[in-house]
Structures are given as structure tokens and as C-alpha cells.
Design brief:
Helix content is 8%, strand content 45%. The chain has one helix spanning 110-119; strands spanning 3-7, 10-13, 18-25, 33-39, 46-52, 58-60, 68-73, 78-83, 92-99, 127-132.
Length: 133
């Protein structure tokens, strides 16, 4: 059973930084793509970034490109999301998800994230990120 636990959120001022962690268990980590999603109040959950544990490829939504960095420690089965130059519009609950999509998407792409969002069912509590202006 896929289990993911998010942590690392907090409250920062605009321009600040945070590092989010997604600790994984219950599946073969090296075979999965791990994605970060976020949901702001009153809005739908949206894709942020993903990384393929098998080939190391990564993808970023345009809104976070150049500010956020995703990385993976396969030995610790943990994926990190470094958030820099934070903006008030980054305020949201951040969630991670995992799917084995190697057959369809060997690398992380926008399509990977779309399918992941539809397929993943074991959403956790997420971690709150609040950015004040």
C-alpha cells in the first residue's frame, strides 16, 4: 500500500524559502514517479512538480519554474521540494502523490502529472504553506 507523509510546511514572508519532504513507504520507490500538488482554498488541486525515481527526470509547472527545485533521495525513499522566492500566491496545502507510470511515461511530464492526479487515491493530510506579503 502506497503511503506518503508530507512535512516541512510553515509560514514565511514573501521572498522566503521552505523545504518540503515527502517520505514514502509501501512500494518500490525506484519504479515510481513522485509528484507534488497543491490546493489553495476554494481552488482545485493543481500540479506543481514531479520527479521520476527511475530516470531522474523532472518537470515543473510554469508558475514555479526557476523558484522550486525537486529532488529525490532514493536511499531514504524521500522526495524534497525546495521552495525559494515564495509568493503569496504559493499559499496552499501541498500534497505528494506516487504512481508507477513507466510504461506510459518513462519521464516526468505535464501528462504524467495529469494522469497521476486522476489515478492517485491515497492522498495524505498535506503540509500547509502560508506566504504573507
Amino acid at each position: 500500500e502506497v503511503q506518503l507523509v508530507e512535512s516541512g510546511g510553515g509560514s514565511v514572508q514573501a521572498g522566503g524559502s521552505l523545504r518540503l519532504s515527502c517520505a514514502a513507504s509501501g512500494f518500490t520507490f525506484d519504479d515510481y514517479a513522485i509528484g507534488w500538488f497543491r490546493q489553495a482554498p476554494g481552488k482545485e488541486r493543481e500540479a506543481v512538480s514531479c520527479i521520476s525515481s527511475s530516470d531522474g527526470s523532472s518537470y515543473y509547472e510554469d508558475s514555479v519554474k526557476g523558484r522550486f527545485t525537486i529532488s529525490s533521495d532514493n536511499a531514504k525513499k524521500t522526495v524534497y521540494l525546495q521552495l525559494n522566492s515564495l509568493k503569496p500566491e504559493d499559499t496552499a496545502v501541498y500534497y505528494c502523490a506516487a504512481e508507477d507510470l513507466r510504461v506510459l511515461f518513462p519521464s516526468c511530464t505535464a501528462q504524467t502529472m495529469g494522469v497521476m492526479k486522476r489515478l492517485f487515491e491515497s492522498w495524505g493530510q498535506g503540509t500547509q504553506v502560508t506566504v504573507s506579503s
